[in-house]
Amino acid sequence: MIEAEWWDYDDADEFAEAVAGDVGFIIESALDARGQALIALPGGKTPLPIYEKLAKAKINWKNVTIIPTDDRLVPLTDALSNTAMLAKIFLPKGARVLPVTTDKAADHHMAGKAADARLQDLHWPPDLVWLGMGADGHTASIFDGPDLQEALDAPKARRMVGVMPDPMPKDAAVARVTLTKAAILSARAITIVLTGDEKRALLEKAIEDGHSSKLPIGRVLADAEQAIDIHWAA
Ligand SMILES: O=C(O)[C@H](O)[C@@H](O)[C@H](O)[C@H](O)COP(=O)(O)O
């Protein structure tokens, strides 16, 4: 049984304030306990106003490492780069934002291996993995397609893999690297942040279906052992 706690908000500002406060608290607690924090943050549009608020928090950002939960295989100068988006917001605060993509990989499988190698140097597990969800039920870049099973079944030690979504998402039709299911579920805390009635219904069903879910997010969450906080606004 997936243990999920839903937090609902009436307006966008309250939503952003609450999620930023929650994530700030997770970071502060990690800094208190271990002197450093590692958090994985998604791309997409939903988190942007929340990131802006979070970046204003009085946190010792110098001891915070941020990785993208997934990234698109594009140069860092491309508007689709999740790392570039995160860097723009959090680098000026002093956080370390770690790129996981490389221009040199021959294909998405090699890019996945390179991303994984980069993450192997980090102090694991992440204090937080923050997930978004697409209208097709993908999370991070765990999409339907030929690489879905590898992302779901990769062994515990494997942190990232390369993914070629099929069908391709229209808003960012490119190959990706993504945290594996095992890497996501290794996190000390998992938070899902989403908006809209349609996505809510989809996620509720995915959680209910668990292992038999047809959606990547349902399959990922089915084995979660930690309680999951879901922040939702209409
Ligand atoms: O594509 C990415 O980079 C994401 O990490 C992805 O998993 C995202 O979180 C969802 O697609 C939701 O995106 P929105 O917030 O834009 O709906």
Automatic annotation (TrEMBL):
CDD domains: 6PGL (cd01400). Keywords: Hydrolase. Hydrolysis of 6-phosphogluconolactone to 6-phosphogluconate. This is 6-phosphogluconolactonase. GO terms for biological process: carbohydrate metabolic process; pentose-phosphate shunt. It holds the Pfam family Glucosamine_iso. Its EC number is 3.1.1.31. The keyword Hydrolase applies. Belongs to the glucosamine/galactosamine-6-phosphate isomerase family. 6-phosphogluconolactonase subfamily. The gene is pgl. It comes from Sphingomonas crocodyli. The keyword Hydrolase applies. InterPro entries: 6-phosphogluconolactonase_DevB, 6PGL, Glc/Gal-6P_isomerase, NagB/RpiA_transferase-like. Residues 11-225 form the Glucosamine/galactosamine-6-phosphate isomerase domain. It catalyses: 6-phospho-D-glucono-1,5-lactone + H2O = 6-phospho-D-gluconate + H(+). One of its GO terms (molecular function) is 6-phosphogluconolactonase activity. Pathway: Carbohydrate degradation; pentose phosphate pathway; D-ribulose 5-phosphate from D-glucose 6-phosphate (oxidative stage): step 2/3.
